[in-house]
Design brief:
Aspartate Aminotransferase, domain 2; alpha/beta; globular; 4-stranded mixed sheet; 16% strand; 450 residues
């Protein structure tokens, strides 16, 4: 059992046991699977991870935003143990079970939107996205889908088609699915327009309107899918008005408005859903990651008439909505309803924002700092005037940090953004420790000519 409050590094990283496993991983596991940190986990609790060599790390990655409730939450663990003793997976398509219904009921009650809703449970974020697209096409009887530049929606074929970053995600995997088009996203830091928001008056929205008028007929567009904050794209936080105008555009033209909350959902922005933060009422929301504290589960929740569009048997899957995942999700949703996670996300946000703003003032290698609550990105550049991306710097910052017991991961279409996604159970002491290590890493890299 991990008894530490803060990290403790006992060996070099990776240690000897991790090195042996890394060799086996090299021999046995597909080269296409990436790993951010060269360690193997023995146990994890709260905001801490212990590796097989006995080193304890502070986790600012949360399994890429999957452990919002913290590693091995006691109530979740107990619910899973109890469920395993009853039944593991009879398959909802064969013999139904109550935990599935309970999750659906909870999601319907907490999802934004003043309209009648239904739910479809699936396994992964990509699967939720695929089903949201299927539902939209079936409901509208239209074929064209619009997704945003810089987006990430998953690695299965339609999700990958919607995704923007070529390497490593799309390179060599084409051809992709037709009738998918890209629209501008409000990446204000890298906007080429002469004036920045609000002076630009959302030029990106005007470009979307022009695109619809000149390139694709509105009569052919089934849906627009967008992340409220782009995660893999680099923690891109658009102006609230951008998303609100995009929603209005969908309403005016009869497009299904899909908001991908796979990374932003369940407390990342200090709200259960980022849609609440931005004042949105999506037609469909996709959720996954932290919904079940790491047990594979995802969902599409939204307007009843859209969820009811398929014929019976048109959606689903053998493992979709497994009982183990459902009981975990029921506990997670109940814990979020108490409000402690959301309050702590906002407290963490204040600590992180204050520290990152001071770093921005001190180090010109930081081009931009952006985020909210427990979701932040630091964009590193070689020069603030040219904004030339500096992915090499990010790689070295990550390496320095994990060698001192703090785990960070990267993001961004240029891989030059350091991404902070701490578990919402992280304490102030832990957050300050991790951010101090981050500043040490930046100083070290600058002093050593990076």
């Amino acid at each position: 059992m991990i008894e530490n409050v803060l990290p403790e590094i006992k060996t070099e990283v990776p240690g000897e046991k991790s090195k042996l496993l890394l060799q086996k991983r090299k021999e046995l596991v597909s080269r296409g699977i990436s790993n951010a940190i060269p360690i193997f986990v023995e146990e994890a609790k709260g905001a801490l991870i212990k590796d097989v060599d006995g080193n304890i790390f502070l986790d600012f990655a949360s399994g890429i935003g999957m452990q919002n409730a913290g590693h091995c939450d006691d109530e979740v663990v107990e619910a899973i143990k109890e469920q395993v003793g009853k039944y593991i997976h009879p398959c909802f398509h064969v013999a139904m079970y109550e935990p599935y219904i309970n999750v659906a009921q909870k999601l319907v009650s907490i999802a934004p939107g003043k309209y009648e809703k239904k739910v479809l449970l699936t396994n992964s974020g990509a699967e939720a996205v695929e089903n949201a697209i299927k539902l939209s096409r079936k409901y509208t009887k239209k074929r064209v889908i619009l997704s945003a530049e810089g987006s990430f929606h998953g690695r299965t074929y339609f999700a990958l088609t919607l995704t923007s970053k070529v390497k490593p995600y799309k390179h060599g995997f084409g051809p992709f699915i037709p009738d998918v088009y890209k629209i501008p996203y409000a990446y204000c830091y890298r906007c080429n327009h002469t004036y920045k928001y609000p002076e630009c008056d959302l030029e990106c929205i005007e470009r979307i309107k022009k695109f619809i008028a000149t390139e694709v007929s509105p009569e052919d567009i089934a849906a627009v899918i967008v992340e409220p904050i782009q995660g893999e794209g680099g923690i891109i936080v658009p102006p609230k008005r951008y998303l609100q105008e995009l929603q209005n555009l969908c309403k005016e033209n009869g497009f299904v408005f899909i908001v991908d909350e796979i990374q932003t959902g369940f407390g990342r922005t200090g709200y259960t859903f980022a849609s609440e933060y931005f004042g949105l009422e999506p037609d469909l929301i996709t959720v996954a990651k932290s919904i079940a504290n790491g047990i594979p589960l995802s969902a599409v929740v939204g307007r009843k008439e859209i969820l009811d569009a398929p014929d019976e048997g048109g959606v689903g899957g053998t493992y979709a909505g497994s009982p183990l995942a459902c009981v975990a999700a029921n506990v997670v949703i109940e814990k979020f309803a108490r409000g402690e996670f959301l309050a702590n996300a906002k407290r963490l946000g204040k600590i992180i924002e204050e520290k990152l703003e001071r770093m921005f003032e001190r180090y010109s290698v930081i081009g931009d700092v952006r985020g909210t609550a427990a979701m932040w990105g630091i964009e590193f550049v070689k020069d603030r005037n040219s904004k030339q991306p500096y992915p090499e710097f990010v790689k070295e910052v990550i390496k320095f940090s994990y060698q001192r017991g703090v785990i960070f991961i990267s993001a961004g279409i240029y891989s030059n953004v350091l991404r902070l996604l701490p578990p919402l159970v992280m304490t102030q002491e832990q957050a300050e420790y991790g951010l101090n290590v981050l500043e040490e890493a930046i100083k070290y890299c600058l002093q050593n000519g990076l």
